[in-house]
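Intended use. Records like the one below are meant for learning the mapping from a protein sequence to its folded structure. Do not use them to infer anything beyond what is encoded.
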Amino acid sequence: MPELDLLAIERRVLDATSGPWGIYLDPRQVSTVYSVSSGPAAEGYNMPGGDFDSGDGMIEEDATFIAHAREDVPALIAEVRRAHALIVKLWKVANPTDYPVHDAIRQAGYGSMIFEATR
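Structure written out for the chain above:
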């Protein structure tokens, strides 16, 4: 898996319409993702091959996923940063001869993050 570019993800979050977001599904099977502060952000129509429809008839589920992403993505970024800080702290407090701890952190793919955080 490629390394996460948290700064790029955060930039996309900041560039997106502010939240909270919600959805509205009207009787014509039009699902609208909207920002409470600024109105509709995207509409999907229940037509196979439509602009915002994957053709699987899951417009409401897709819109719900998109609407929740406005709050879920920043929460996930915060959790990743918290976990990274904990890993760095574990690295720093582990005895230098505690090879199992250091090896486990390296094998989990955090070697470059530790190098950047401790230099």
